[in-house]
Design the sequence.
């Protein structure tokens, strides 16, 4: 071994020893990130959220008579806004308020991000059962900054019905369960959603938002949120908006494929992903329709209604990463949820006039945490934004479960007969999406949609 080689080996060994001797960086926890944001913005201690255990002192209310009184912020501030031209201005105002206290603003740095799409190899064993009726692709959009930093990916598996073009597509927010095992949610046997879509003539897209932004605060810095800006500013976005950004990027890429009808790409998501789908549809009107399933607090439920989960739950360490840090401002004294300048009906109305479909299970069958009646009341309070464009509005109370009356409205509602599961509403959603074109409100669509002249 010559002198130069010995010197190199010596330096290499010294470097390895230093690396091994260095303490491992401690993994930050969600609670620590939560505390850091509270301290950074001066929020201090927050009120405790509701418990799902009825034996606890802070148990969630599940008795309708105990909801209490509340007043919703107006959908229209002035009569002059109650027309199509006025709605353009009012929608912009509501959008800014929803961003500031709920979902957060997307940092301007995201405009400079590069998304490079590629097809990656499939794990064929996991999709072999569909090879008889589908052509299957696995796409990834790799995100990087113009200064060379790389980030996470927009990840999707796409199932195309064979030998067909110009088809509608459904993007399913697909949860990545620990160990790859989906929990048993009880109730009826769920259908195979992929085969259900393919046999109906739809392209089925498994979008995995957690590969873009993890579903916890401990890893928030490692996702697209951290790539854009870290630490977050007080009105910056959370995971719901980040997942929505990824869904919009995916929609744009799907629209370039001739097998897909570019103007008929819809969304579906359940529970926390129901919240995500609602945010995506509210802020991107190029989606054709969206199935918002059992989204509850932070989604389609009126937050002023004290039933089930509360705003304080959303502001706590287990869920605050979904939202802007500023949600914590309304979970500390003296402010309360009643000081919010908007509520769920405001978020829903951002979607007007395009199709949207809100569903839930039965409270008594296991969906009380998401407050089905609170979602119905938010749905009804948002309807006037669609009425401007000629849509009928509900003239009766909350329908009985499995009633299909609201499928006739571009802002549709359906309550199935089971618990906290999405699949009993799938067929109703497809019916809704196939009924309404994007321009349902144009005069030549009047007879097909039951429009009131």
Sequence:
């Amino acid at each position: 071994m010559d002198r130069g080689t010995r010197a190199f080996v010596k330096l290499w060994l010294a470097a390895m020893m230093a690396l091994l001797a260095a303490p491992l960086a401690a993994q930050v926890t969600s609670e620590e990130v939560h505390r850091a944001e509270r301290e950074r913005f001066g929020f201090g201690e927050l009120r405790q959220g509701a418990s799902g255990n009825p034996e606890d002192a802070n148990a969630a209310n599940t008795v309708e008579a105990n909801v209490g009184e509340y007043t919703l912020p107006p959908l229209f501030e002035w009569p002059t806004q109650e027309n199509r031209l006025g709605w353009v201005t009012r929608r912009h105002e509501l959008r800014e308020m929803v961003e500031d206290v709920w979902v957060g603003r997307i940092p301007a740095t995201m405009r400079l991000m590069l998304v490079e799409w590629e097809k990656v190899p499939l794990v064929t064993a996991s999709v072999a059962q569909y090879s008889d009726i589908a052509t299957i692709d696995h796409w990834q959009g790799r995100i990087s900054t113009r200064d060379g930093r790389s980030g996470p990916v927009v990840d999707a598996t796409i199932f195309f019905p064979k030998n067909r073009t110009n088809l509608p597509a459904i993007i399913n927010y697909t949860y990545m369960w620990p160990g790859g095992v989906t929990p048993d949610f009880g109730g009826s046997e769920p259908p195979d959603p992929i085969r259900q879509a393919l046999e109906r003539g739809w392209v089925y897209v498994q979008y995995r938002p957690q590969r873009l932004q993890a579903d916890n605060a401990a890893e928030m810095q490692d996702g697209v949120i951290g790539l854009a800006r870290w630490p977050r500013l007080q009105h910056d976005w959370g995971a719901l908006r980040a997942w929505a950004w990824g869904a919009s990027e995916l929609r744009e890429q799907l629209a370039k494929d001739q097998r897909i009808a570019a103007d008929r790409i819809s969304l579906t998501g359940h529970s926390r992903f129901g919240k995500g789908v609602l945010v995506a549809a509210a802020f991107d009107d190029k989606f054709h329709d969206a199935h918002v399933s059992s989204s509850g607090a932070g989604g389609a439920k009126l937050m002023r209604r004290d039933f089930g989960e509360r705003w304080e739950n959303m502001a706590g360490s287990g869920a605050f990463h979904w939202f802007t840090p500023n949600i914590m401002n309304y979970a500390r004294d003296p402010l309360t949820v009643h000081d919010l300048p908007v509520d769920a009906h405001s978020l829903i109305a951002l979607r007007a006039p395009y199709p949207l479909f809100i569903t839930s299970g039965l409270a008594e069958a296991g969906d009380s945490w998401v407050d089905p009646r609170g979602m119905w009341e938010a749905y009804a309070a948002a309807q006037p934004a669609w009425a401007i464009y000629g849509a009928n509005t509900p003239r009766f109370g909350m329908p009985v479960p499995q009633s299909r009356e609201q499928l006739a409205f571009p802002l549709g509602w359906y309550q199935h007969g089971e618990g906290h599961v999405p699949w009993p509403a799938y067929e109703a959603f497809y019916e809704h999406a196939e009924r309404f074109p994007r321009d349902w409100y144009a005069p030549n669509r009047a007879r097909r949609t039951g429009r009131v002249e």
